[in-house]
Amino acid sequence: MSRLAKSLRNREAEVFAPTLTGLGERVHLASPDTGLTTHIEDVHAVLHYEDLRDVVLVGHSYGGAVITGVADRARDRISRLIYLDAFVLKDGQSVADVCPPGMVEALTGLARQTGGDWRVPLPFTMEQLGVSNPDDVAWIERGMAMQPLKTMVEAVTLSPEPWPFPVSYVLCTGRSMGLFEQFGLYAQESGWDYHEMPWTHAAPALVPDECAELLMRIAGSEGSRAAV
Question: How far is residue 15 from each of residues 11, 85, 139, measured CA to CA in Å?
Fold first, then answer.
């Protein structure tokens, strides 16, 4: 995500891109107890301790599950929520609940084989992610870490109250992974601000300037209130 953060900062946006516990440079903090709640608390703590308000909160991929929980806890600090080819959870759901049949079993099997029963490697190839340039492959793989399985199977708890801010969804249509189309449809049915872009799922790394331009445009637009 650092390429996208850099591109946004080049456009004079104030950007915070916290690394979630157990990932990236915080990989040494991973444990079997690291779950979705841990990651929600990571981001919520940044909002609190930096005293951030009027925040445009963006989540990509698994990050959509995280920002869903953060937005529910920090309603008074959020001005807009943007899902960038990301998971959208409802109350009581986990990422595993919204994955295609058999995927959770595959992840559990990978954890058993290579992750000591509690961590999973990325279950997709670079080709499936739409990444072919060797420099991009090397850049992405350098930052990859196995993810605690609990982040995938822990459910989120949400308030039934409608969100008091607009919500946007960006669906990347360049190469289907069979994961995010359902959320694009849900976004449209819910009356969210909706965009389709001909990018792959790795858009923040492959086309950061284009992503930044779109996010800046969405952040400056008006939108209808929505409930999740």
Answer: 10, 19, 21
Amino acid (1-letter code) at residue 151: T
pLDDT digits (tens, 9 = 90+) for 57-86: 999 999 999 999 999 999 999 999 999 999
CATH number at residue 49: 3.40.50.1820
pLDDT tens digits, 128-179: 888 999 999 999 999 889 999 999 999 999 999 999 999 999 999 998 889 9
Which position has the token pair 């998971």? 87
Counted domains in the chain: 1
C-beta neighbour count of 163 within 10 angstroms: 18
Dist CA 106 CA 183 (whole Å) = 22
Catalytic residue positions, numbered:
61
Among candidate residues 100, 65, 102, 79, the one with its CA nearest the CA of residue 228: 65
| Pairwise CA distance, residues 179 & 88, whole Å | 11
The model's pTM is: 0.94
